[in-house]
Write a structure and sequence with these properties.
This protein is mainly α. The protein has a domain of 93 residues. α3 packs across α4 and α4 packs antiparallel against α5. The longest helix has 18 residues. It is elongated. It starts with a helix and ends in a 39-residue tail after the last helix.
């Protein structure tokens, strides 16, 4: 779903290495990163089912939640992290009730109505509207 490059857009390579290096080896620990991604996916899936082609907003939430999980493993959660999580929960709730879309649509062509179709305010030829009783 996301890669290390997606995470590196929000944090530096050094920060990613420090957050993933829970054994203090000095190396990037991909297993810890993958575990944090899975924890973030589980959190998101408690609200919605992750689509195969998520929107950029949903990917950003996944990245932010993965970073949150990495900081949680290192006990480095700040108040701004907690606020960000509440904001993400709010967005995920809106996605769960259908107010925000979760999947990018591949077909973006608009349908153009043919002529002579019914419209809400279609004027008919030579007909008058009865306005008695409206005054």
């Amino acid at each position: 779903m996301i890669t290390n490059n997606d995470l590196l857009k929000d944090i530096s390579k050094q920060q990613l290495q420090e957050l993933s290096d829970i054994n203090a080896d000095g190396d990037l620990n991909q297993e810890v990163i993958d575990d944090s991604i899975n924890d973030a996916i589980s959190f998101i899936e408690s609200f919605i089912v992750l689509p195969e082609n998520p929107t950029s907003l949903l990917k950003k939430i996944l990245v932010q939640e993965t970073i949150y999980e990495l900081r949680l493993k290192n006990k480095l959660i700040t108040d701004s992290d907690k606020e960000q999580r509440k904001d993400n929960e709010s967005k995920l709730y809106k996605m769960s009730i259908g107010k925000l879309i979760t999947e990018q649509r591949k077909d973006t062509t608009a349908s153009i109505p043919e002529q002579n179709k019914s419209y809400a305010f279609r004027h008919r030829e030579k007909r008058r509207v009865n306005t008695r009783g409206f005054r």
